Amino acid sequence: MYNSQMQRYLEQIVFKDIKRKLVILTGPRQVGKTFMSRQLMSYYQNPLYLNWDIPEHRVRLQKQDWYDLHDLVVMDEIHKMAHWKQWLKGVTDAKAPGTSLLVTGSARMETFRQAGESLAGRYFAYKMHPISVKELCANTSKSPSEALDHLLERGGFPEPCLVEEILEVNKWRLEYSKDLLREDILEFSRLQELNTMKIFIEILRSRVGSLLSLASIARDIGCSPITLSKYLDILKALFVVFTIHPWTDNVGRSLLKTPKVYFFDQGLVKGDEGARLENAVAYMLLKHADFIRDTQGIETGLHYLRTKDGEEIDFAISQDNQLTDLIEVKCSDNKPHATLIRFAEKFPKANAIQLVYNLRYPQKTRGILIEDMAKYLSELQA
Predict the structure, then answer these.
(1) pLDDT tens-digit series, residues 281-325
(2) Overall average pLDDT of the 94-106 stretch
(3) In a domain, 247, yes or no
(4) Which residue from 72, 181, 182, 307 has the highest number of Cβ atoms inside 10 Å of its Cβ?
(5) Final residue of a domain: which of 110, 127, 144?
């Protein structure tokens, strides 16, 4: 298990908010939600941890027998309970004064972000992400470049990131993949679909950062695009992958455009150095955007930019439907990317940044900041 001294980036924020409202913490399996919950429990006099997957805990959850007995109640995996949203509303409304409530989970728990009307005004929602360059630097003596190389090799999930032996990393990833298929994916799909799902995941691993054509993949593996669209939704709900769409000021049109897909677990990426670097930057930019949204209430999005002629830059960040950052990822190209220059001219109010993994020296030319990738990632908000 990982370093008990490590403080996750959301810990103090959740500790502050949990005194005022219910906090719902979502994120991938094994990203550190339970670990942080137990860290938070150490701040309380008489905390209680209940996990729906444990039979005796399930009985206590159904009885709700903790009233006025505990100053913190942590409830894990309750999205597996029938009618859990209404149940949680009742628990929240009936909780004793001075009792804090923390709910953690993945998968369907995330639907609270889209449909939380029954708890409107009663909760704060946070999404926990894997360890980033910024977070690793804050908890270790590693420099930004050392942290980035470490994460490229191991990924940002706490256990493989922080375990000593590299052999343990490979063992963890094998078991993690098996658990996803055996438990989580089976929640959403039928047993006979697992083989097709495994093939689909393998194909996605080699198409990181590419435009995602479900019709093309469907032809390759002999199923319908509608089926693959359902599988993609499952993988997104389970925080295995995330997609980004091209930016446009018309949100409806944007969602119809071809997405690009990335993995939360950096270790699942297949491909060359460019693909691995792009995925690492993608998950850290998403963490940055979600952190701003969750902690500051500013609608922040991660996108890419592409013209009808096929000119494209890797990432764009928006806030309140205005582009703030244009970002291109390069392994070692110190010259400003021509397409980035053109987009910078089109969106002069946005910061145009070329992130270079092997950079001799930073510079600014033709409105483009050419910056060391590791340094830039270490200065994100999370």
Answers:
(1) 999 999 999 999 999 999 999 999 998 888 999 999 999 989 999
(2) 89
(3) yes
(4) 72
(5) 127
Can you list the positions of beta strands (E) in the chain?
A: 22-26, 47-51, 72-76, 100-105, 123-127, 241-246, 260-263, 300-306, 312-319, 322-330, 351-356, 363-365, 368-372
What does DSSP say about strands 351-356 and 368-372: parallel, antiparallel, or unpaired? parallel
Q: What is the pLDDT of residue 2?
A: 44
Sheet of strand 100-105: strand arrangement: 47-51, 72-76, 100-105, 22-26, 123-127
90 and 206 both lie in a single domain:
no
Q: What are phi and psi of 242, to 5 degrees?
A: -140, 155
Contact 313, 328 (CB under 8 A): yes
- The verdict on 140 and 119 lying in the same domain is no
List the one residue out of 258, 270, 157, 254 whose CA is nearest residue 208. 270
CB-CB contact of 181 with 194 (8 Å): yes
Q: Tens digit of pLDDT for each residue in 336-375? A: 999 999 999 999 999 999 999 999 899 999 999 999 999 9
Give just the sign of the alpha carbon dihedral 222, 224, 227, 229.
positive
265 three-state secondary structure:
coil
Last residue of a domain, one of 127, 156, 177: 127
pLDDT the model gives residue 10: 97
**CATH code at position 76:** 3.40.50.300
286 SS3 class: helix
Average pLDDT over every residue of 239-247: 94
Give the domain extent around 358. 133-378
Give the end-to-end CA distance of the chain in Å, rounded to a whole number: 22
d(C-alpha 162, C-alpha 5), whole Å: 11
Q: State yes or no: pLDDT of 117 exceeds 70.
A: no
